[in-house]
Amino acid sequence: MRASGRLVAGASRRLRRVAGQAVAASVATTDPDARPLPPRRRPVGSPLVGRRFGPGPGLPVLAVAAVMVLIVAMLGIEQVTGINVLPDSLSAGLRQPPKKFPVLPASRPTDLAINKIDVRAPVHDVGIAADGTIAVPDAARAQEAGWYDQGPTPGQYGPAVIVGHVDTTSGPAVFHQLGELRSGDEIEVTRSDRSVAVFEVDSVDHFDKGRLPVDEVYGDFSRPGLRLITCGGRWVGGETGYSDNVVVFASLVKARGA
Q1: pLDDT tens digits, residue range 129-166?
Q2: Fewer beta carbons within 10 Å, N or C terminal of the chain?
Q3: What is the dihedral of CA 131, 169, 114, 22, to 10 degrees?
Q4: Cα separations (Å) of 8 from 44, 167, 176, 216, 221?
Q5: Which three-class secondary structure string do you get for 156-170?
Q6: CB-based contact 30:37 (threshold 8 Å)
Q7: Cβ distance 82 to 203 under 8 Å?
Q8: What are the TM regions of this chain, as residue ranges (predicted)?
């Protein structure tokens, strides 16, 4: 376990180092042990709310109901768009709990399949580019994806990172439609041991290349995860190309042939 922990910590540090170079609400409840407050006398001549607005629930009840309707609506938005719009402190206990997951031994990825966007692509290894960033496939291999070989393999604890081009001068590339994925979509990664790791999309986010949240993208070693990364946003040209990174966050939910 100690050796495994050191490996995980080392992989986490490598990912964070490279990434660094690369580009509440609460509802008050009553105390059951507290004595009830004495009824407050209504000044003579002051109108009752019930008389003014008719019989029905009071304003506090309506306010709480409105908040709950808003929360349900925002959860619906998250389900449709895959974008988290509720703060974690408010949504804890409202979202579905994480699914159980297997943990797979190390085995490099060979193929990637995403039915939702009709992707079938071979995967080859990429390392660190000359400028210290995660390398990307050569333009001649724009229809292939690249697995960052200094991090976990898909199915191990931690975020396995697979990168790909969005387009080239000749047309769309392997991850051209990556931003269309939504929460719940499945991603299948075939590995060299012939097992298939099946991941489920948690969210799809756009990050300015100069403000990539390193810990959020590369720092979660609590379970086997997957990060698919490509370019997006505005075309700004030069060495930057597109202004943003599109990052798909996914979690391992099952495996076949393992």
Answers
A1: 888 888 999 989 999 999 999 999 999 999 999 999 99
A2: N
A3: 20
A4: 72, 33, 32, 16, 7
A5: ECEEEEEECCCEECC
A6: no
A7: yes
A8: 58-77
- In this model, does residue 176 exceed pLDDT 70? yes
The pLDDT tens digits of the residues spanning 147-157 come to 999 999 999 99
- Cα separation, 128 vs 22, in Å, equals 10
Report CA Rg, the chain.
Answer: 25
Nearest in space to 229 (alpha carbons), one of 97, 216, 171, 104: 216
Q: Which residue has the tokens 């990174």?
A: 245
The encoded tokens of residue 126 equal: 């990429």
The residue whose two tokens read 């609506």 is 73
Separation of alpha carbons 108 and 111, rounded Å: 10
pTM: 0.66
DSSP code string of 155-215 = TBSEEEEEE--SEETTEE-TTTTGGG--TT-EEEEEETTS-EEEEEEEEEEEEEGGG--HH
> Per residue in 42-100, pLDDT tens?
444 433 333 333 455 455 555 656 656 665 666 566 555 555 555 544 444 444 545 68
